Amino acid sequence: xxxxxxxxxxxxxxxxxxxxxxxxxxxxxxxxxxxxxxxxxxxxxxxxxxxxxxxxxxxxxxxxxxxxxxxxxxxxxxxxxxxxxxxxxxxxxxxxxxxxxxxxxxxxxxxxxxxxxxxxxxxxxxxxxxxxxxxxxxxxxxxxxxxxxxxxxxxxxxxxxxxxxxxxxxxxxxxxxxxxxxxxxxxxxxxxxxxxxxxxxxxxxxxxxxxxxxxxxxxxxxxxx
Length: 225
Ligand SMILES: [Zn+2]
Hints:
Layout: H1 3-27, E1 31-41, E2 44-53, E3 59-65, E4 73-79, H2 82-86, H3 94-108, E5 111-116, H4 120-123, H5 126-137, H6 142-148, H7 159-167, E6 173-176, H8 180-188, E7 193-197, H9 208-216
Parallel strand pairs: 4-5, 4-6, 6-7
Antiparallel strand pairs: 1-2, 2-3, 3-5
The structure holds zinc ion.
């Protein structure tokens, strides 16, 4: 099998899996809501609501501000990134994006951040993400590194986010993202995306190439929808 054929096969497998996951998450209730309390942050006090996946036991967090049961709710669907979100790693822009999202929602007085666990390294896990970092230090870009480790360029699925938004009675969202795959991934699960607002931070020496790969190879967009 040539490289192109292998690529097609891999794409086919991943598309097939996505369809199964899409229908699973669209047709069943796969989250239990387990706890809620005010969470004061430096961007204001959000209502923290924990949703536990009945599929794998992962606990996801929604930070809710104001009355989100309605249209055009400012929404950030954020993929967990321990190194970037918690430790401020300069390899990526995740921490900066999370802060910008909280700030924008706070300014608007209404919105939600859905914080998705299990999405490290676009879904490959923390250990594999660090392996990918080493490959990037050897010259591969973020996509090539994931592929070399036997993963897809992006393995994330947004079923949890779609169900959380539905449980919060969010009717439609203005999505804070640069990533068109996130917009389409949510739309395919029935989330009505009525707008998109970009979140670009100042590049650092360490993440300049990563950000430019996201633009040139993953189609990340700078402009508003
Ligand atoms: Zn990150």
